[in-house]
Amino acid sequence: MRRWLFFAMGFAFSCSLVEKEDLENITPKPFDERETLIVLSERLAYLDAERKELVDGQVKYLFLLRLFDAEDNMILSPNNEELICEFIGKYVGYGYGTRGPEVCGLSYYSSFRNFGQRSLRSSLHVVVSGDIKTTDPLDELTGLPFDLKDLKKLENCHIAWEKKASGPGFEDTIWRFVGFLNERDEIYSTPSCEDQYVTLSFRKDRQDGDPLFISLGDPDARYFELSGAVWVSKRPGDGVKLYSRLNSNQLVIFSGIIPLTSHPGPSNRDRDNFITNSLNSLHKYDSLNAILHVKDTVDFSIEGNTLRIWNQKTGIQALFFSE
């Protein structure tokens, strides 16, 4: 009897070893246990996401990092999803990073990345540090295994532009946003990296699709439009507003673009697209609206191909240029 007992115990022990070995054979080795191939320090990247169908039939939403300046568009598959979700919650907000990595990845992929259809330039621009690791035969990764150590936000992106001695007139010109100016006319804040093509235009004539605004009794009322990645709408055409020229370098705003707050609240896809923009983009949009505030007088000056507009009441001024 004792002999059979020892046999049973030995058989059970051997089975547990086999099960442990089998488990190790079906699970990829953790990133931090693998050999480091390349150390990356503060490299610029786009934060992307993908819908991944795994071998076992499960569907996961995984984060990707696409390096800016890497040859062959190097793609990294990072670990540390908790860090990424915390980061998204801070720089996008609206609950993205508060419900765990699985929901966070799905939200970023479906809303912010619009199921992968938005341009990478609209993705969060980040600065990453970490180690590229060796691959494992059991990996199901799109990119190289990346042990993510640090993740920062690239807050501002400088626009390449050239100042010219001559330029177009104030109206019927597309003016591109360069940045905000301080009291010494120095640029202290440039466009957000996720919204680098912000434009402002002024015109006399109504175009197809414009709303039928009431001109408030002013026959000289004209149209202006601020365009970019951020939009707010209550009805079709609400992006177009009214202004009137007071003199050669002043205008008055009749109808203003809806100002935002740092946390506009729940998003409605028919009304706004807050959840598909970084907080930095929203804040800069808000500051531009503070210049073009309803019922305020706005000063402007043109020098060559540059336009400077400022609101003395809010104390904010911005620089634009024509391409």
List the helices and strands and how they pair.
Layout: H1 2-26, E1 36-53, E2 59-67, E3 75-78, H2 81-91, H3 101-112, E4 124-133, E5 144-153, E6 173-181, E7 187-189, E8 199-203, E9 222-227, E10 240-247, E11 250-253, H4 279-291, E12 297-303, E13 306-311, E14 316-321
Helix pairs in contact: 2-3
Shape: elongated
Give the averaged pLDDT, no decimals. Answer: 83
Rg, Cα atoms, Å: 27 Å
- The largest beta-sheet arranges its strands as 6-8-9-10-11-12-13-14
Tally of structural domains: 2
Ends distance: 94 Å
Approximate strand percentage: 25-35%
Poorly predicted ranges: 1-23
Order of helices and strands: HEEEHHEEEEEEEEHEEE
Give the helix/strand class.
alpha+beta
* Total beta-strand segments: 14
The main sheet comes to: 8 strands, antiparallel, barrel
Separate helix tally: 4
Amount of helix: 10-25%
